Amino acid sequence: MDATARRRTWLIVLALAFAAEWTLLAIHPRHRQDWALENALVVVVVGALAAGRPRLSPMAWGLLFVFGSLHLVGAHYTYAEVPYDRLARALTGHTLNAVAGLSRNGYDRFVHFAFGLLLFLPLAEMLQRAAAPRGLWRYALPAALLFALSALFEIFEWWAAALFGGDLGTAYLGTQGDVWDAQKDMLAVLIGALLAAAITAVRRRRRATAGAPRRTA
After folding, report:
1. With helix as H, strand as E and coil as C, how does the chain read?
2. Helical axes 32-52 vs 137-164, angle rounded to 10°
3. What is the mean pLDDT of residues 193-211?
4. What tens digit of pLDDT does each residue of 80-115 get?
5. 26 phi/psi in degrees, rounded to 5
6. Helix axis angle, 107-130 relative to 58-77, nearest 10°?
7. Are 88 and 95 in contact (CB under 8 A)?
8. What are the phi and psi torsion angles at 216 (to 5°)?
9. Taking a C-beta distance cutoff of 8 angstroms, is the pair 78, 72 a contact?
10. Terminal-to-terminal C-alpha distance of the chain
11. Which is higher by pLDDT, 209 or 19?
12. Contact 143, 116 (CB under 8 A)
């Protein structure tokens, strides 16, 4: 099987797995209206990827799948009510919040961090084919765009919460009473993106070093 066939097979596997996850998590979500609102973004993103058909590495597609899966879980329970602590207690006898010293549900913040960490490589590969940034811009531009996208999403959340109001607006906004929630979410995205940039830079340097001809005495 050549590289093109392997890539196509990998995409089919990811697509089927994502469709299965979406179907299972569409059954009895905690807040049906919030689930529908969260999944509107899924439809837009999946539609854009299907229409644009970006040529991404298998790893980049895998990272997109992982982030999409995290989002589906948040949409099913609502981001402020994902029961990760209940699962952690059942498995270990301890809660993650107690270990990490958190006083609120941290799933929303974790997914914002994952947005920067997991989507850096796919976005960097898209930019490399569209604009081919060089030098430091190969790392700074994807991180800056992810930070900008996080800011746009916070604005969208505000508009949606103001438009729908009530329980739906509260569930979708998911601030959990923190007046600085939007700013902290954006910082989490930036930290994730900068960490991904550092990892990408190290991987590229190692590949370049491994591929460089050895000097002979």
Report:
1. CCHHHHHHHHHHHHHHHHHHHHHHHCCCCCCHHHHHHHHHHHHHHHHHHHHHCCCCCHHHHHHHHHHHHHHHHHHHHCHHHCCHHHHHHHHHCCCHHHHHCCCCCCHHHHHHHHHHHHHHHHHHHHHHHHCCCCCCHHHHHHHHHHHHHHHHHHHHHHHHHHHHCHHHHHHHHCCCCCCCHHHHHHHHHHHHHHHHHHHHHHHHHHHHHHHCCCCCC
2. 140
3. 88
4. 889 988 888 888 888 888 887 777 888 999 999 999
5. -80, -10
6. 150
7. yes
8. -105, 145
9. no
10. 41
11. 19
12. yes
Give the Å distances, CA to CA, from 140 to 135, 143, 207.
9, 5, 20
Cα separation, 96 vs 87, in Å, equals 9
* Per-residue b or e along 196-210, where b marks 16 or more CB atoms closer than 10 Å to that residue's CB: bbeebeeeeeeeeee
Each residue's pLDDT tens digit, 11-36: 999 999 999 999 999 999 998 888 98
pLDDT in tens, 41-76: 899 999 999 888 888 999 999 999 999 999 999 999
For the stretch 165-187, pLDDT in tens is: 666 766 666 666 677 788 889 99
Q: Diameter of the chain by CA atoms?
A: 75
**Residues ≥6 apart with Cβ < 8 Å to 18:** 65, 68, 69
